[in-house]
Amino acid sequence: MNTRLIVLVGCLILVFIAANVIPVAADDTNATATTAVPTTTAVPTTTTTTVVPTTTTTTAVPTTTTTTVVPTTTTTTAVPTTTTTTVVPTTTTTTAVPTTTTTTVTPLVALFTASPISGTAPLTVQFTDTSTGSPTTWDWSFGDGGTSTTESPSYTYTTAGTYSVSLAVGDGGVLPSSTSTQITTITVNAAATTTTVPAVTSVSPTYGPVSTSTAITITGTGFTGATAVTFGGTAATSFTVLSDTEITATTPASSTIGQVDVLVTTASGTSSSVTGDKYNFAAAATTVPLPIFSASPASGAEPLEVTFTDESTGSPGSWSWDFGDGNTSTLENPTNTYVTDGTYSVMLTETNSLGTNTTTETGYIVVGAAAPVASFSATPTEGSAPLTVQFSDTSTNTPISWVWNFGDGSSSSVQDPVHAYSTPGDYTVTLIATNAAGSNVATETDLISVNAAQAVTPLAPTYAVTAAATTGSSVDSWLAQQNAEVATASPTKKSPGYDVISALIGCGVVAGIALRRH
Question: Is the Cα torsion angle 393, 395, 400, 406 positive or negative in sign?
Fold first, then answer.
């Protein structure tokens, strides 16, 4: 009996829970509460309107207007007018007044201006007559013996001094005073003294022994009053001024081997260094000189300035250069500028106390557009395939076209190309640079070294999978999948009362099982 009671109580509790605790899912259709609204019936209303007619009576009152016309009377009385004219005789009297004419005579006064009134000789002065009294004659005296009868003359003073200028004017004796004189002073200063700085044009001979005095002749200008003659800064042993254009001098007894300037000094200054004033102190000659020289640059576009350097042997005492373009020099190491395109031969003649010798370099100087000198660089020059290399043109003389051969069968005409080497090996690169004057080739043997690429071997996995790990992983994967499905699943929609029915069925099953056991 107790067991049955317990089962019955359990069933009641399950029903209660099913009805009140277990939530019932709402259906898709929401219940709508309806509230009864009382109904109002409209009652028709009747309105009665009574129209009362209105009567309007208008009475017309006649208006009477009376107009009275009053006649107007106008009276005009004519009054006669009487005009009286009286003629009065006129008498005219003329009295003659005598006329007196007065003539004012302007006195004759000599006046003039001068401009300028001072300056350096030669001084030209403009004189301008400003006299009064209408003069007809002018007599000028300029103070240096010069005269003029011109009204406004111009006069030039050539000698320094102070001069009194006078002007006498006349009118031919018409006026009471027929002459008048003015005096003005003109100051003329001496002209500035012109100074001439000496200039040396040549010396002869142009060389001599370094340890012995040599008599030479110096020619030039402005030698009058010379106070010094120097050889490379060392005073001459002696000198004599023969004229304004010639001096004889004796070289210092001892000096330094080499070419020096011979300079002349006067009160006006010292001569400047020029090509013609060179003198060479030579070593004692043991052989006839052998002319040898170099030039830099030896080619190029005009104007081309070339410096020549003497490299001779045999102690030359003098140099005579012929540059092939009409220019010459007696300097030891001269410079010459070529201004015309062409090929020039250069000749050097040297002399010492034992004799003279000449060397000629044929076609030595080339002036004009020059062919390029091809050259280039590359980076990198070594590496693994594929190796990409940047080539840079460094040619001179302005090439206008380029032909590259990379050594692997490939080529390019770009000035600074980039090339990729894909096969290992050593490659020789060639560049041909060209302009209007010609072409030039530069070759770099085995410039590029390409190595074989290193193979990369993949690493095999070194881990093992156990059965337990596999089972565990499969279970974990299954649980994760189920959780995901539960999380994303839509709730099942049930009809109202479904949970109560399920609870009752469950209670019945449980009660049946309990009764069967007892």
Answer: negative
Per DSSP, 396 falls in state: B
* 199-204/161-170 β-pairing: unpaired
What's the Cα-to-Cα distance from 217 to each of 174, 238, 239, 352, rounded to whole Å?
78, 12, 10, 18
Q: Residues for the chain: how many in total?
A: 518
Please state, as a whole number, how many other Cβ atoms lie within 10 Å of the Cβ of residue 173.
8
CA distance 239 to 249: 4
| CA separation for the pair 282, 274 (Å, rounded) | 20
- SS3 of 470, please? helix
Query: Could you tell me the pTM of the whole model?
Result: 0.38
Phi, psi of 401 (to 5 degrees): -145, 155
CA dihedral (261, 262, 268, 272) positive or negative: negative
Q: In terms of DSSP bridges, do strands 438-451 and 382-384 run parallel, antiparallel, or are they unpaired? A: parallel
pLDDT in tens, 199-242: 999 999 988 888 888 999 999 999 999 999 999 999 999 999 99
Show the tokens assigned to 265: 């000094």
Q: For residues 429 and 409, what is the distance between their CA atoms, to the nearest angstrom?
A: 11
In this predicted model, what pLDDT tens digit does every residue of 396-414 receive, in sequence order? 988 999 999 999 999 999 9
Q: Are 335 and 365 in contact (CB under 8 A)?
A: no
Q: Measured on CA atoms in the order 314, 315, 318, 320, is the torsion positive or negative? A: positive
